[in-house]
């Protein structure tokens, strides 16, 4: 972080402000959750708990990030039929199975947050999903 600067409202340079650790923690957990959901969708016979633990270990997640990943991934998987039906109804001239594995994982994750995590404002879930789609999705995913 040393050497990084931001300008204040008067144009003076100062230390770069960090985003809240809490937000960064959830973002890291969401990225890991996309990986878990992608992998479980692609390789249907894997054990979800094993995959979650492998991702936590490989990504070196701990504490709040690991807890949020675990909670988010398990809730998404538990409610996947309901989430998929909701997404399917929202697609126009398109089927969920035609979307890429990554795009499906991102949509499922965002829908789960909006439906079952009341403490997360829907705007945050949508913004995070768009950013994930820009970075990890296929061309045009973020639209």
TrEMBL record:
One of its GO terms (molecular function) is RNA binding. Keywords: RNA-binding, Transcription, Transcription antitermination, Transcription regulation. GO terms for biological process: DNA-templated transcription termination; transcription antitermination. It comes from the Bacteria. Coiled coil: none annotated. Residues 14-26 have a biased composition (Basic residues). InterPro entries: NusB-like_sf, NusB_fam, NusB_RsmB_TIM44. GO terms for cellular component: cytosol. Residues 28-142 form the NusB/RsmB/TIM44 domain. Residues 1-26 are annotated as: Disordered. Residues 1-13 have a biased composition (Basic and acidic residues). Signal peptide: none annotated. PANTHER family: ANTITERMINATION NUSB DOMAIN-CONTAINING PROTEIN, N UTILIZATION SUBSTANCE PROTEIN B-RELATED. Belongs to the NusB family. This is Transcription antitermination factor NusB. It comes from candidate division WOR-3 bacterium. The gene is nusB.
């Amino acid at each position: 972080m040393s050497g990084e600067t931001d300008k204040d409202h008067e144009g003076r340079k100062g230390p770069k402000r960090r985003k809240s650790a809490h937000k960064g923690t959830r973002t890291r957990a969401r990225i890991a959750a996309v990986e878990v959901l992608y992998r479980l969708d692609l390789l249907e016979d894997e054990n979800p708990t094993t995959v979650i633990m492998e991702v936590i270990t490989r990504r070196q997640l701990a504490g709040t990030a690991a807890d949020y990943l675990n909670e988010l991934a398990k809730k998404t998987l538990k409610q996947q039929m309901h989430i998929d039906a909701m997404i399917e109804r929202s697609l126009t001239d398109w089927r969920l199975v035609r979307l890429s594995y990554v795009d499906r994982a991102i949509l499922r994750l965002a829908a789960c947050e909006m439906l079952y995590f009341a403490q997360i404002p829907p705007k945050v879930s949508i913004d995070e999903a768009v950013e994930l789609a820009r970075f990890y999705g296929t061309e045009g995913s973020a639209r």
